[in-house]
Structures are given as structure tokens and as C-alpha cells.
Amino acid sequence: LAASGGAGVSLCPLLLLLLFLPGLAAGPAGMLQPRDTPSRERKELGGLWSFRADLSPGRDAGFAQRWYRRPLRQTGPVIDMPVPASFNDITQDPSLENYIGWVWYEKEVLLPLRWLQGDPAPRVVLRFGSAHYYSIVWVNGVQVVEHEGGHLPFEADISSVVQGSPGTLCRITVALNNTLTPHTLPPGSIQYMADKSRYPKNYFVQNIRFDFFNYAGIHRPVVLYTTPAAYIDDITVTTTSSDSAATVQYQVSVAGSTANSLSLSLRDQEGKVVATGDGPMGELKVLNPNLWWPYLMHENPGYLYSLEVKLQAQVGGVLLEDVYALPVGIRTVHVTSTQFLINGRPFYFHGVNKHEDADIRGKGLDWPLIVKDFNLLRWLGANSFRTSHYPYAEEIMDLCDAYGIAVIDESPGVGIKLPESFGNKSLQHHLAVMEELVRRDKNRPSVVMWSVANEPASELPPAAHYFKTVIAHTKALDPSRPVTFVTDANYALDHGAPYVDVICVNSYFSWYHDPGHLEVIPLQLTAQFENWYKTYQKPIIQSEYGADSVPGLHSDPPLMFSEEYQQAMLREYHSVFDKKRKEYVIGELIWNFADFMTNQGTTRVLGNKKGIFTRQRQPKAAAFVLRDRYWKIANESSCLPPVITSHSLFL
Predict the structure, then answer these.
(1) At 262, is the secondary structure helix, strand, or coil?
(2) Which of 129, 293, 390, 535 could bond to 412 as cystine, CB 3.0-4.6 Å?
(3) How many CB atoms are closer than 10 A to CB 374?
(4) Catalytic residue among 148, 356, 394, 455
(5) By C-alpha distance, which of 364, 350, 277 is closest to 637?
(6) 231-328 domain in CATH 3.40.50.2300?
(7) SS3 362
(8) Distance, CA of 355 to CA of 353 (rounded, Å)
(9) Helix, strand, or coil here: 619?
(10) Each residue of 339-386: pLDDT tens digit?
């Protein structure tokens, strides 16, 4: 781990363990979302897991004593820990709130006997939706996978382990490390305080350069699922459409055997087959298609077909069949110098930036919270959001597909500020993360653009090669979508902007710049847009803007941190947006949807308060300003009758 700082600062030597552990890397195979089908079963492992933080000075006792070799309770004291959830806010232990290092999870599961028998026996896979940040997983004491990255899924075929063990008990052990280095994504650094007159022995802190709390834990569902020994490994679809017909291009890969036959059926929402095909690659023709439209652009947004893929293959003389159903939305995306087109029609992003963040559970997936957030989005009249600043859970993305919420899908590339984070080691990891992200979300109609980073130090010269490479790699992985990153650099100094398809710019005039002076917004925001467009001739999204407001704090005339100031700032920005969206501004995303937790600091009182909703999802005054605006924009641009109101279409 690289340390930051100068005199009196050194590495925590035993944390170097993170860099040198041997193991199996997650492979390049497909990453289809687990689904129950006639040939596949799932077993969800959510609930209480055993948990133990490694409090040894070097955080290495778990490896030295091989905690994975026996039940975790036999290694020392354990506590119950809910999964999915962040571990930070669950207990009353302040040392766990800001803990950095290795923690250990364990779950004992009984497997159905039918999963362990047969000739050939089914394939048994262990899958994690995400775990932050570095994970090593054992099953019955055998290491099966390790994975770097806190926001994307990883899995391991554990068939040989569980089918070769006596009985049906499956003991899953996870070692998880939340340490961030200059080469992780997001980056960070460990600062080890050597001054013993000021700090306890072995004292170190995690430094980060992003403004949200570095929650850690198993954040998304853990599942066991089965497939036949010969199975559908991956599916890729792209779509094109005209007024009366559409084409669904597909590519299917199989594993475990050579396919005897591979057939495909595309069904509409009533279950009617509208197109069929066969073979691993081809096109399906759909007459009079129902296109996937964003919310408020069509009376039936988020229309999804179901692509059923059926494989038949011989394994050991036995004919096996695997079935997988993939939701498919038919839509096109195109960018001009002044517009963002969905299905050939201009699309204006009126939406939000979000965080996966809530009381107690931190970044852990929580269905009531997810559904509440989508109800608030539709109440607000929002048609889009950015996954600031990391990929969100697949369950959230499923609802974006189904509800017609357009998504700018962002990688965890936030806080890339130090020159060493632009080196080849960081670059190679960033490329691998984009591969994982595209592999996971490539088939989602809601994903209309990739974002490779947020507010990097793109004014540094190495940023030119770095972002040219990352963006080109992302386009090679998926030529069907535009690619951007979100900048807060000066238009004349940004080395990455030449390579993006859409300019996404963050600015906080009268907040971080000229604080308290609302009168400067029209001049400065207008100059921002005109300078960027004159330089690059590309459409622009205001990807962040906003002000902190403490709920219930009022001031007239408006003063900073009052609800009135937040309202006034929004209105000043909106007046400029209304002029420029007639030209080349194609969207506005408020920062932020809801208040969220950050590291402690003198400018943060229990987190960032720029939400238009509180952390408990109650509206501030600014939410009503934004709601009136978004419904007005929707009525101006919608193909629906003008009777749409903010009281319809969101239940």
C-alpha cells in the first residue's frame, strides 16, 4: 500500500499483505444475472452471517492463523452481521465505524441433495453481487475466488468442492479488505503516523479524495445457483429500429460442451412469440415493435420483451437442456453536435445524481428503500440519473429498465487526483473494471451512456493518454453507446475532454466559488457553457450543481445552508438552462437526490446536505421547485397529450 504524507509517515508493513496474496482471479467468462428458469435454481444467502474484524496490529492474524480452515466461531469472538449491509453502522463499536483492514464473514448452508448428485451433476456457482473492496472466498476451506473492486459482481464454480465433500453442508468464508491505494478504483492512500508523541503505536488512517463515506461490507445479495453441466454462458444483444420494424442482433456463447442446438424466441409482454432464431449468432426481425422509451416520453415507458434462449447439448452421452430468459428493450441512441437522440427523438436529461446510501445499512441493498426512491423519482418527474460514483446494484438497474429511467452508468473512477493514479498500473485496472461493467450492463436499454470517471485531475498531462485509452477501450467493448467522463476542470486545460462524446460538467457557482453570491451565477454559468461548446462543439450536460441545506433552517433573504438559499440557487441555474437547452445543453442532473454520509470534517455536519430529500427521503423545499420544473419540461417535450400532470403516471 502506498502511503501519503511526508516526514513521520511510513507504510503500515503488514497491510502489504493485500498486494501479495496468491489466489484465483475472477475469469473473463460471462456474467449473466442469476435467474430461476426450468433448468436453473437459485438459493439466496441473505440474512445473518458470522462476522469478525481482524484487530491485530497488522490486520493479518486471520491469514497467519488460517481462520478459513475451520468455523469462524472457533477462531475467537464473532458477532452477527446482516448481509447485504455495510458493517460500519451496525454496532455501537466506534472502532468498527472507521475500521480499515481485513474483516471476515462466514455462512454455513445446507445444499439440496439434488445439487450434488447426477451424472453429470449440475454446476453449482457461488455469486456475490458486490463486496467492498477486495475479497477472497473459501468454500469448505478451499479458496475458490478472489476479486478486486467493490461495486461489481464476481462468482466461482464451486461444483468440484461441494460435490467432492461429504454431506451437504457448505461453509462459505469471506475475507474482505476495504483498504484503498493509489491504484485501486476509487483510489486512496494509507497514512501511517510514526510520531508516537501524538499517535498510538501502529496508528494509521485511510485518506480518500472523494466526498462520500467509504462504507464496506458485503453490500449486495449472495446467491448459490445451478446450471446444467453444459450451459448458456453469455448473451449479447444490440437493437436497431425504424418506423415499422426492428432488428435484434444477438450473440450467444455456451460452455461445458458443444451445442447440439441453440434456439431463440422473442416474446412480447403478453407472452406472444414475435420472432425466432437459431444458432449462436444472428438477427431477429420484429414487425411493428414496441420501442423502449424513457419515462414521460411515451405512454408506455420501459417496454421489455423477453428473449428466451434454449440450449441442447450432449455431455457424457446425456442430452442436457439449459434455458435462460433475458429482458430486451428495443431502442437506439445517437449523439449529434447539439442533441442526444433516443429512438430518433431529442431526449433531455432532467434527473438526479444519487448514492447507494441510507441510515444503518450504509450501502447495503434494501428493497423498501429502492422502491421508495423510484416512487420519489417518478413523483419528481425525473427521467434519468447518473450512478454517481460507481455502478449500482443489478436490482436497481432492473427497475430502471422496467420503469424507463435513463441511466448514465458510471465506473468507480472517482477521486483520481494524484499523478501516480494515472500510471500504467492504475490504467490497467481501470480497463479491467470497464470490462466488468460493460459485461454486466451491456444488454440494458436503460443504460444510454457510459461514464468512465468523475472529477479526475484531467488538467494533468498524463490524463490525455489515460482517458484516450480508457474511452477507446470502452467504445471497443460497446460501440453502441456514447462514452463520457464528468469533469470539473477548466475547459481550456482538460486533457480528457477531446475524447468524450458528450461534455458532462460539474460546477457550484455561489457555493464553492463566490460563496453566498447568487448574483454571479447567470454570468459564470453562461460563460461556462459557451466556452465548452465553442471549444468542442459537443452537447453538454450540467452533471452536477446544487447547495447544502439543513432541513428546517430558514432565512429570508436567503443565506447559505438555508432551504431558501438552495431554492434560490436552483432557480438561478434553471434560468440559464432554459436559454441554453434551446441550443446545445441536453440535460441537468441535480446534486443530490438525497443527503448522504461522508467522512467527518469541519464542512460536513453528519454528511453532505445537498440532497433535495433528506437522508430519510423527506422532501426539502427545493424538491418542490425541481418537481414543478421537471413536469413542466415533460409537458413541453412529451408526445403525450398535454393533460399529463405531476399527479399522474407515477403510481
Answers:
(1) strand
(2) 390
(3) 19
(4) 455
(5) 350
(6) no
(7) strand
(8) 7
(9) strand
(10) 999 999 999 999 999 999 999 999 999 999 999 999 999 999 999 999
